[in-house]
Design brief:
The complex is a heterodimer of chains A (483) and B (143).
Chain A lengths: L1 H19 L20 H20 L13 E2 L2 H7 L2 H24 L8 H21 L3 H4 L1 H17 L16 H17 L8 H22 L1 H7 L2 H10 L4 E4 L2 E4 L15 H17 L5 H15 L3 H32 L7 H8 L4 H23 L2 H4 L23 H31 L2 H26 L5
Antiparallel strand pairs in A: 1-3, 2-3
Chain B lengths: L1 H30 L7 H7 L11 E6 L2 E2 L4 E6 L3 E8 L5 E4 L4 E4 L4 E7 L4 E9 L2 E11 L2
Parallel strand pairs in B: 1-4, 3-9
Antiparallel strand pairs in B: 1-2, 4-7, 5-6, 5-8, 8-9
The chains are: A mainly alpha (483), B alpha+beta (143).
Chain lengths: 483, 143
Amino acid sequence: MARLLRAGAAVASALLGAALLLPSSAAAHGLAAKEDLPIPVWLFIWAAAIVLIVSFVVLSIAWRRPLMQEEHRHPAPGWLSKALINPFTEAVAGGLGVFLLGVVVYAGLEGIDAPDLNVAPVFVFVTFFLGGVLFSVLFGDFFRAFNPWRAIGRFFGGIVRLVSGQDAPAPLSYPKRLGHWPAVAGLVAFGWLELIYGVGSVGVSPHDVAVAALIYTGISLTGMALFGTEAWTARGEIFSVYFNMFSRLSPLAAEDGRLFFRRPLTGAPPWGEVPGSIALVLASIAVTSFDGAQEGTLSGAINTVFDFFRDDIGMSISLSFRVTDSIFILLVIAAIAGLFRLGLWGMHTVRDAPSVAELGRLFAHTMIPISLAYLFAHYFSYFIYLEQAQFTYLLSDPLGQGSDLFGTAQAGVDLTLLSANDIWYAQVASLIVGHVTALALAHDRAIAIWKDPALATRSQYWMLAVMVGFTTLGLGLLSDANG
Amino acid sequence: MERAIGILIGILLGIAIVVAFVFLGSRDTIDDPSIDESGAQTTIEAPATAPPEPAPEVIQLRGGEPVGGVRELTYTKGDQVQISVELDEPQEDVHIHGYDIEFLSPARSADFDFKADIEGIFEIEAHGPSGDVVLAEIRVEPS
């Protein structure tokens, strides 16, 4: 009883803390003609209440033996594996990846330099980056096959094998401690390019997207040349690592060319063992949070610092903007990491607990559903609108120079496809589902660590508080709770 | 037993949050009548001066800035939106995003008159000698 009261106090304080951070605005995105209406206060309150109730119900009826620590694999039929994964399909998928990379670079350099009329920005930031997450969750780690940089690396590896008769040796072995850290840095840089470098509502120009793609191609190929194609792809290449993270939630996976089914979510638990994993998932949450907060809660502080750099230091407008936002995105990352860290410290106070660092590795995967829910809630309407553009006028007229390849150049985006209510309920539902999934993963892990269900449950009050904090923050970022 | 208590605490906390927010929300409204949470109170303070057919909103562009700052104009879906943008110098174009209504090379004014049938927040923007200027934000709420 006393324990439950303590847990209640912890949750209430987490909720209060998150409520203090509530921003008040709809996120503005450069590429869409419309901003979503913020979630109304009454819906936000109900959603927060449901999150609390659901949390306690989950924790109270929870299972006492781990259910998600084993994958329980069922191999797919042999013909299906062979039909989907064979040298021919691998070559086609890799070739398609390289072709699309080429289209982005060509369109960015040669096409019209307007972000909404050139295929490059929408393809990279929406179709590829957001669509890739969706595909990974539904169908597993598909990007491994379509990864253009891996395809180029394997192509050159194949040539070396043909000429010399043996595998090309990698000059360096990938340092184990480096883990996912290159991908973490890359993910933050990608978010910075999209949200900060483009200077607010102006957006990144197609030309800059093409140059960034070329620079990134250079970095990837260098990494592969130094450490080997597969080693760099699995650890350092941003998009492989990022999409693989979300594919851990999928019931579909492949290993050694064989397709198999597993219990949903069971791919996630081993994910945190690689150093830097926790930083990767928290960086994803933080970049999305920053996007939501920069127009809301943080806008006042951002303006003050911006004025300081522009008026007192005398920087140009765009430089002041970039420096200011860079400082704030780092602050948001620190705040998100701090919130998670609080949960780890709390868990560490429970008897027989592993070290804080060990707990971080053991619970990193529990943040994947929260990160997914943040992405879905923030970008789902944006994705629906811009994919209409992607598959109509941007498909037929990718360079924005008046071509009409598929007869859809004149079609537009139907902004009435989603009503404000559709968007609000989808946002709230995704955050609640993400929250419950994260709690389930964390509880399952705790049961596996502590064996004694009473200790496991006690440790989870802390994670519950942290996750209620994240979910309420996520809801708050989308609502106009403080009017 | 513990389970029942846990569920009960969760539900009580949930109710407490709702009550707390409703309480805090109503106090805000009393402190600051400009918060449009309860339309009833504001209409009492401003007795029936609003005509049934509202006059067009007027936005003035002076020296590259909208007079009075970027205002947010709120409508309900289905309303007729009438906005008159008065210009101090000719612009290349004045347009509203989302609805894609555009006035090319307006010299003195651009008069918008359309039905609010897309929910969301949309910017009215001018492109001209002062660059890209946001004039106002249209907020269309569900009916």
